[in-house]
Fold this protein.
Amino acid sequence: VLHNLYEGFQVALSPANLAFCLFGAAIGTFVGILPGIGPVTTIAMLLPITFKMPAVGAIIMLSGIYYGAHHAGSTTAIMLNMPGEPSSVIICLDGHPMARNGRAGPALAIAAIASFCAGCAGFLIVATLSPVLAQASLAFGPTEYFSTIVMALVLASVLSSNNLLTTLCMSLVGLLIGCVGTDLTTGDFRYTFGIDDLADGVDFVAVAIGLFAFAEIITHVAAPERRTKLDARVKGLLPTRRDLAQSWKPILRGTSLGAFLGIFPGTGPLLSSFASYAMERRLAAEPSRFGHGAIEGVAGPEAANNAAAITHFIPMLTLGIPAGAAMALMLGALQIQGVTPGPEVVSKHPDLFWGVIASMWIGNMMLLVLNLPMIGLWLRLLLLPFRLLYPAILAFCCIGVFSVNNTAFDIVLAALFGLLGVVFRILDCNPAPLVLALVLAPLLEQNFRRAMILSDGDVTTIVTSPISLAILLLTLVLTIYFMRRKQPVVEEVSHQIAEEVP
Amino acid sequence: LTRISDSRQFWSGALFLGIGAVALWAVPRPLGTLAAMGPGYFPMLLGSGLVLLGFAAMVLGVLAGTKTRALRLPVVPTCCVLGGVLAVAALITAAGLAVSLLLLVAASSYKRLLSRPLEVLAIYVVLLPLTWFIFVYTIQLPIGLFW
């Protein structure tokens, strides 16, 4: 492992890759701070640029955007009670009260320290566990793959909303859209409705841009313009000794929890931060301090969030199963570069695998430097009115979608999905499971078919294979656990935010 | 439809049921069997699932105790933003970057087109060279500035 890591660092430390890493981390921080544009949209937008880049550099940059955004989302949560990313919703609960008590500096510092520690731990876990898991995944047949993908879809549904029925339906719609085009096994056209452009299927970049970016911009344009006010001033960044004494345990706990949960496909940063907050509150000596600026409520979830954001790479790098919408886009980037994600990545593309892993650690260092001393600069960005930005976002999105296949038809598709995205928003349907399902659809169908051929049409093979049974049982247990644990916290968060944002 | 208590749940259920019904109606043939699936088998399963779950969501929406806010589609912003996007789709290869971006910026900034024309123009003037530099000059997409 050490030797591999050494080579990985050599790849990651080459000037070009360092620049990609810095660029990715800076862009990620930027979009993490801007509300309304998240890592998924950004990665989708920048995807065409990566086509001309070397594979390693492309993935390094995209992962930089991903963890940079998670890192920075907490800044707006603390300063403005406005989560930059969904996963930092929970940071609002105690981070913003701290800022209002004049302790914005320590809150930001603790968040950054927690992120960094978690990032380092996550990096170590990815480095040691991925090769082992890649080996183990060689024992996976179609049945096991099928169960793992089902796990990813179900868990992603449980986590993205309180309404399991709606999100499961969203996954099914995503799977159906994934069926459009030429059937991989028989060559028949499916759901093309006589449109030639659909023969190659619906491009997931168009879907993601439509559902996330276009729908988000339309909602912003429709809303009355809001002036962002920065009321809290940052003075005195350094946390006191007492802050540190109170936070190191939550950071450790949050890191382990997040790192553990991030490994499962379908879970990830959002859930980990919720779980960590709930855990800290249960363990605290005075639970009543939570919600009024308890530093543990910042340190724990922030660590969990970032640890999970990094261990989230494990299912993608080892199994080729993306664990979320952003990962799905990165998987797409890998495929366009001619790299088939899966167990072979470690053995066939060691420079890519270890280079990306090493870059995560370097990226986390960069984030620390980018965020803490320059916090004032980033906050000034919040004053930039969204109306000046969204035409540029729209333009980049349109051209980005166009460039994937060089067809204008994809832009039309994206517009259609934009309309669908607005409808989904009104109906309270989270589009993330749909995009994930769309990417996983071919994988799910092929493995289902193969499993059924091997078992001669016997559905029970899914529960008679021990690995598959274990995966499904784990899915069931985690689903029930999260349904019961998450509900109270989610309700509390939505109450609190509803109260404070008029 | 004031009598339906959870209208979000109800209408999302209706939407899913509709999508499922279309999927079943247009299901690719032949279906095949479980052991030897044709192109239609998997979509058939998905469509049936959507119809069932969508129906369940509709029923739950009617039965729910809580009332939710009325739903309103932001018609004008949706039409303007997506109209701009469709203009790009129609013109990008035929008329080039300059014209299609002009339409996109104008349509999406419709609120300020008359009240603050200079600001909208400024956005366009900054955006056009930037886009051209990134997408045409650097990564050489087959798009022209004018045609």
